[in-house]
Specification:
With 151 residues, the chain is mainly α. It is 68% helix and 0% strand. It contains 4 helices and no strands.
Length: 151
């Protein structure tokens, strides 16, 4: 018997469409899973039953509880994962907003310390500044080309 399929209703503060999308995704992944472990379990129980190591009633009980365990895990996953995934997305968005706010705050703090006589933007220089990575590349290349020795 396969685990119960379908989406469990979850409510999450935030974007309900995103939570529903995650619920669909999680349900699809769970429904598409291969259940080779259950097939192996059934084969072992059937062999034990055929050899007389396990009676029919115990075999049936073991199969039922094994299936119930899977159903419980799938239901738990369908309930717990969509809101958790949505919360991760919300946390990332809030962190990005916090970073932007911190950058704005820092820019305001730095601008408040600048004397008013300073121009708002520096005059453009004829040669753009080199970034450190570009400078490092140039040094490496320069090191590959030996300079002529002066004698």
């Amino acid at each position: 018997m396969a685990p119960a399929q379908g989406r469990t209703s979850v409510t999450t503060p935030g974007n309900p469409d995103l939570t529903a999308a995650y619920a669909d995704l999680v349900s699809g992944v769970l429904d598409a899973r291969s259940d080779s472990a259950t097939q192996a379990f059934d084969a072992e129980v059937a062999a034990a039953e055929a050899d007389g190591r396990l009676d029919a009633r115990t075999a049936r009980t073991l199969r039922w509880w094994q299936r119930e365990s899977l159903r419980s895990l799938v239901d738990h996953s369908r309930t717990a994962l969509p809101p958790a995934l949505a919360a991760l997305g919300q946390a990332q968005a809030e962190a990005a907003r916090g970073t932007a706010e911190a950058a704005n705050s820092w820019a305001r703090a730095v601008d408040d310390q600048v004397p008013p006589s300073r121009p708002a933007s520096p005059a453009p220089s004829p040669d753009p500044p080199l970034d450190l990575l570009d400078r490092r590349r140039r040094l490496i290349v320069a090191g590959l080309n030996p300079l002529p020795r002066e004698e």
